[in-house]
């Protein structure tokens, strides 16, 4: 199958770095409470926190608000950037949403058809998992439809091409099986040369069994169970994209909608490309040598907040495989007279994405992309920047090490998708350049900021902060106005990760820094031994939910 390539594709523009350090995540800024927003027991008259004698104002809540940057749309080629900007303008939504869905569309086209060889032992697939979260009423569905529509057109074109091949194969199989059946009957009745007759019948049966009737091509699915997803991957050459404008696909894909035990195998192996083999009682086994599953989902922030609580999602690495986008909500500031997407922009996008799908679908063996030396150095510099930040004690990304440790691989995948999108004519004969790798780094920087924000939303970005919340919950639950370090350890030991008093210290330091507690002047008791450090609890900390 062949597809005509448009000849108007623009060259890759140079990517310039911002003047500041492009890879330092934006630090969180604390949200300080307002007095008028404090919740109080209506039956009691609590004093204003700032007026509490000896305390320097109200305690700072144990949560953060991170500044997250918008998606760097300039890394896309013109045909894609124009569509992303136009859809965002027409729907009055953040460009982030259209851009992340665009990446899922590129992944649908190239997943399983392109590999990147970084080194002799490091080969990356190019399929992505993207999840964008915005509140209800944010026009997720219109954006999703506008960006994914060309995939349906491409699927129809592939089905039309395959229909003729399918008819020919079905007819050939029918003739071959009829011939095999006829020779089998002759072999049963043969008296002269029975071995020769049996050999002819056997050869005909093998020939008939070897004729494969191709399935009608599928590129995407929506609401799919893990078992069905495996079957779709096995049937369609190891490639499938789960694209959904609703976040409940997580419950279905992992099996939690129908079973208490989530089935995460296809989700994990489909991202990494590890061999997937399923044996079921009463059914033929299904094997996918190198699965390439794409995930493109728009959902609500509440869905993300609950993901970490699902069994196996973090400890088995599901959360670490997702590129998150948590853009600002535009509801309440939208222009209801915005310009619609122009016919030229929409047609150009539709034709180019369709062409990309058809060109890549025409090849059974994946294309292998290499990095030119400069691109390899850009990637190595990034890895060297990233590594110390993953240190479990001193790294600023220690709270999301599981996610951040996969960021270099994600940048390689992004670079490959950008390379293919920029170079439809000759992308497979050329290596990925340094400019493209820098562009991918810019996108990686965007997803790093948003991953930190999402892990904050899940309450999983800072283990010490989680511990501080655990101690504060214990204090408020029991109404302690004072306590000792020993009291806290005895109560919390065994139910949390506080094995020793030293494990408790970071949490107590955070609570002290945020004004929830303060060290109490030790009393002279005359007893031998070192007394346990005592703390006072801010009165407002006990009255604020």
Keywords:
single chain; 545 residues; alpha/beta; three-stranded mixed β-sheet; 16 helices; 15 strands; elongated
Describe this entry's structure for a reader.
By secondary structure, the protein is an alpha/beta fold. It has 16 helices and 15 strands. The protein has helices spanning 78-91, 95-110, 140-189, 194-209, 226-235, 249-253, 265-272, 301-307, 343-361, 373-389, 401-404, 407-422, 434-458, 463-478, 485-492, 501-513; strands at 28-30, 64-66, 114-119, 122-125, 129-133, 220-221, 239-244, 276-278, 286-288, 292-299, 322-325, 367-370, 482-484, 517-519, 534-537. The strands form 5 sheets. A 5-stranded parallel sheet has the order 6-7-10-5-11, sandwiched between helices. Strands 4-3-12 form a 3-stranded mixed sheet, with helices on one face. Strands 13-15-14 form a 3-stranded antiparallel sheet. Helix 5 links the parallel strand 6 and strand 7. It is elongated, with a radius of gyration of 29 Å. The protein starts with 27 loop residues before the first strand and ends in an 8-residue tail after the last strand.
pLDDT < 50 stretches: 1-6, 8-13, 15-20, 28-51
Q: Give the helix level as a range of percent.
A: 40-55%
Q: Categorize the overall geometry.
A: elongated
Number of helices: 16
> Which strand-content bin applies to the residues?
5-15%
Distance between the termini: 63 Å
Q: Kindly report the spatial arrangement of strands forming the biggest sheet.
A: 6-7-10-5-11
Main sheet attributes: strand count, strand direction, barrel closure: 5 strands, parallel
Averaging pLDDT over every residue, what do you get?
Answer: 83
